[in-house]
Write a structure and sequence with these properties.
The chain is an alpha/beta fold and about 375 residues long. It is about 50% helix and about 10% strand. The chain contains 13 helices and eight strands. A six-stranded parallel beta sheet has the order 1-8-5-4-2-3, sandwiched between helices. α4 links the parallel β4 and β5. It is globular and about 60 Å long.
Length: about 375
């Protein structure tokens, strides 16, 4: 068995209405919090009241869309001017990623470009970030337990990561009750992101026994719960199971990496106004098919084929399911949840070449179970249009 490591948030709290504990949990980090929210800061009203009851001053910073370099700079300035002792990310992946980056830049010198990958200097953070608490309100990204922050550079038309083991949250508080109000389309896109993030690490070239165990249970949970949560957003069991599957995905990707779906998602998200979860959903069945064909052709003994066999069994519930059955099950689910093709967001044939070039260099592509050729990468993207 190969050596492996497993890192995660200092403390994970999971449970219905666990948000009620946030005041006492936060008190050890200071008396002044910057609360980073999504585009509707009013959703954080209860959180702010709970902090106030514990004598903690909370000021808000709104993240209306996926975080950019400039937005993180503005949030960092807001935190410093407010005298914040710690940062709480309350929202979907964008709010949590922004909060994570703001906490990192509050305590470190220089500019964000000193530390981000690809377009920056990718220097390691010299100082530990300000204390950071993550509270997801969607069941999708797993950002609450990831060690990176995904940031968009509109000028470069790419998404990049600020990445450090120091960026793991002090507390990841997962309250499934916060996801009950999600509309079906958000439930679908974030839920398919969560499902992608338990499938890709299972077959990743960096998979290990701990991440695989999490992925296997996460696939089982999401396959059962996502269709229910989509059709009945008030179903408590489905919301709990999706929140748990999302948490498992975050734990797995942080320790085993991802694959070609997320390798494409970063450049697509940087070039086109396509929601991350929708991009992942549109790509997933095609990446599975191309990976399976490539493995059978060039690495038929690779353990990833066994991984895809396990995926198929878990998704379909049939012990006799083939690897192709798994990809077909995902295709049917994507259609059932009304996920559009990527052409809806402006992707055309002319974008295929630059996207393939960027995807080949993406950090997530390093976890793909097999190195895909340019032809195979183009095939995936063309099928997903």
């Amino acid at each position: 068995m190969n050596r492996f490591e497993f890192s995660t948030a200092t403390r994970i709290i999971f449970g219905w209405d666990s948000l009620n504990e946030i005041g006492k949990l936060s008190a050890e980090f200071g008396r002044n919090a910057l609360v980073v929210t999504g585009k509707n800061p009013e959703r954080a009203a209860r959180l702010l009241e709970l902090l106030k009851q514990e004598g903690i001053v909370g000021s808000t910073f709104c993240v209306p869309s996926e975080p950019t370099l400039d937005l993180v700079d503005a949030g960092t300035e807001r935190a410093r001017s407010a005298g914040a002792d710690f940062v709480i990310g309350f929202g979907g992946g964008s709010a949590i990623d922004a909060a994570k980056a703001i906490a990192a830049m509050m305590t470190n010198p220089g500019e964000l470009l000193d530390y981000v990958e690809i377009i920056g200097r990718a220097q390691p953070l010299p100082n530990a970030p300000a204390p950071f608490i993550a509270i997801p309100t969607t069941a999708g990204t797993g950002a609450e337990v990831a060690r990176n922050s995904v940031i968009t550079s509109p000028k470069d038309q790419v998404k990049v990561s600020l990445r450090s083991p120091l960026m793991l949250a002090k507390i990841a508080l997962v309250d499934p009750a916060l996801t009950v109000g999600l509309p079906p389309e958000i439930t679908a896109s974030t839920g398919l992101d969560a499902l992608t993030q338990v499938i890709e690490p299972l077959v990743s070239s960096r998979a290990n026994p701990m991440t695989s165990a999490l992925c296997i249970d996460g696939i089982r949970l999401a396959a059962r719960a996502l269709p229910v949560a989509f059709s009945d957003g008030t179903n408590r069991v489905a919301r709990e199971e999706m929140a748990l599957a999302s948490l498992y995905g975050g734990l797995a990707l942080a320790n085993a990496g991802l694959g070609a779906v997320h390798g494409f998602a970063a450049p697509i998200g940087g070039m086109f106004p396509a929601p991350h979860g929708v991009v992942c959903a549109a790509l997933l069945p095609h990446v599975m098919r191309v990976n399976i064909a490539a493995l059978r052709s060039r690495a038929p003994q690779d353990r990833a084929l066994q991984g895809y066999q396990e995926v198929a069994k878990l998704l379909t519930g049939h012990a006799s399911a083939t690897v192709e059955d798994g990809a077909e099950w995902i295709s049917a689910l994507v259609k059932r949840l009304e996920i559009p093709g990527l052409s809806k967001f402006g992707l055309t044939q002319s974008a295929v070449t630059p996207l393939v070039e960027k995807a080949a260099r993406a950090s997530s592509m390093k976890g793909n179970p097999i190195v895909l050729t340019e032809t195979e990468l183009r095939d995936i993207l063309q099928r997903a249009l």
